[in-house]
Amino acid sequence: MDIKKFYPSLNHDVLKEIIRKKIKDKYLLVLLDEIIDSAPGVPIGNYLSQFFANLYLTYFDHWLKEECHCRFYYRYADDIVILSDSKEFLHNILCAIKIYIHQVLKIEIKPTY
Description:
Elements: H1 6-9, H2 12-22, H3 26-36, H4 47-67, E1 72-76, E2 79-83, H5 87-103
Antiparallel strand pairs: 1-2
Helix pairs in contact: 2-3
């Protein structure tokens, strides 16, 4: 599956909240806020964009692996692959993912997954 318009759709408030869990330096946070607020989503082409994108989905990764018990979960940026021998498990995980990314991360999965 793939996140719909991933970089342009990243929610600034969610991203800033995630960054504040990792970084405590006030001066660096001000600088990062200015970079984040300089464009809708995250600025494509900026060196920090890939870092922001990976950080944005880090807690999602942990949630899928630790709470949903996705044994075969792979992600590169916003491209996600989950493997299982159970169709029922995959359907249930897809429903849980849609709810999580909509409510927590404020993004959407592409309808053509």
